[in-house]
Structures are given as C-alpha cells and as structure tokens.
C-alpha cells in the first residue's frame, strides 16, 4: 500500500509538517473510536457493553482528549516517554473510568512519531517503511523514557506483570533504572515473552502491520476476492483473527496462560466458520455474540488484542483507507 497521505485534503494544507501532524492525530483519534465502537467484540467494552466502573463513553473521551499529545509527537515536539506521560494525564483529565488506552498509547506514539517523519513535507506512505522507522525510534528510546514509563503506571491504573527485578509499583525501581542505565526498549525486551505490546516493540510492530494489511485488503478487495465491505465487520473479524493466533496477554496477566489459550481456541473456531463461508459475519453473529457474553460473564477482556487492533486501524487510515 502506497498512497498520498492526505487523501482529499487540499494541496496547500498538505505541504506543511504541521498539517501532517494534524492528519496523524485525527487518524489516531478515529482509530481509537472505531475500535471501541466495533461490536460484537468479544469480552471488551463496545457500543453495547459497559463494565461496572468503565463505560463506552470513557473510551470516547480518552480518544478525543489525547489529540494534542499525538499531534505533538508527530510534530517531533516530545519524546516517547514524555508523550506517554502526557497522554495518560490528558486521558485522566477528561474521564473517570480509569485505564482506557495505555497499551494503545505505547503503540500509537512511536508510530505517530515515525509517521510524522515520513509524511513531513508531503511525503508518501508505506506500511513497511512506517513500521521500520517506528522500530528504529523505539530502539533509540532511553532511560528517561523508561522513567516516564514507570511514572505513568500509578496514574494510569494499569494491570501489569513486574519486569524481573524492577517492581513497577516500587519507587525504588526508578533509582535502579537510572543507576543501571536501563532504557525503555530494554524493558520491552525483558517483557516481550509475556506481553504483547512489548513484543510489538521488539518485533518491529509486526502484528500492527498485519492488522492494517488485513483490514485494508478485505475492505478494498476486487469482485470475486475475499471481501468485507462493512468497517464494523472487518474490525470484528480482524480482532477475532488476531486473538485466534495470539493468546491475549492482558487475560494471561489477570488469570493464567491456559485461560488465555482457551480463549484463542474459541476465537479460532469462529474464524474457521467465517473464512469457510465467504467471510459472511452476519451468518455467524450469534456465535460471536455468545462468545462475547461468555467472556463478559467471566470478566475476560482481551485488552492487549484491542490495543493492537487500534494500531492496525491507525496505520490503515494513514494509508488512505476510507469507508
């Protein structure tokens, strides 16, 4: 996929880096809104389901609130760690539902910085170039980024596994990080085997790119090819596809690896039925809704999967996908 990034925006508007940053921020906002609005999306908050303390509207508020943070990141005005800290702050200022997008911010921020560099001065867009540049950016993340990352946890209310000797709730870990010169990329490398977001950093955002390419391919397929022309359906399908192949680490953190793997097996069963029947999600809506109700009842929410889907939608929108 290679396209002029601004779609139908005027040539005059496209020529400035500030315009590119604004475009990137709007793509990020829309990606977060589309993800949380997609339904039925098994186990997670959507337009039809809230949790006891967190509502659909909290996610909408969070998505809208961080626009200036994403724009500054794309403009090159802030580091990854500083942008993450600011995104959490803005999200908390505008809603009271707790952690909504922490994992998504960890993906969107480096991808936005990369997009800002690539699209500056009216450049062109390509998925491989974007994720390659984002990987270079996260590899250059430093100890200050790691410190900002740690400081964001308490305010975001994130449920996480500790990183080896670094207790994410212990202020003493900050001193150890600084003394040892541990970077944010180092932390992600330590966590990659049990955290999907960390694995995206280390692997070069492979699943983010996969989701973007899947969404774009299905939405733009020619007649006679596998096609899903409903944006809601294609997001739900891609969510299930990713979940079927990657046990969700947010579920694993809350429960155990066996539970996460079982959820993936259930997703794979539904995906098999969809793919063997011309990608007709309407025919299997009942299966998806039953899966959704089961996960909601057991309080199993594939939050890491949702974060990667957001990044995938973001990349697809950057590339010019419209619906």
From TrEMBL:
Q: Note the superkingdom of the native organism.
A: Archaea
Q: Which InterPro entries match?
A: CitG
Q: Name one Pfam family in it.
A: CitG
Q: Name one GO molecular function term.
A: ATP binding
Q: Tell me which PANTHER family the record gives.
A: CITG FAMILY PROTEIN
From the Swiss-Prot or TrEMBL record, give the protein name. Answer: Triphosphoribosyl-dephospho-CoA synthetase
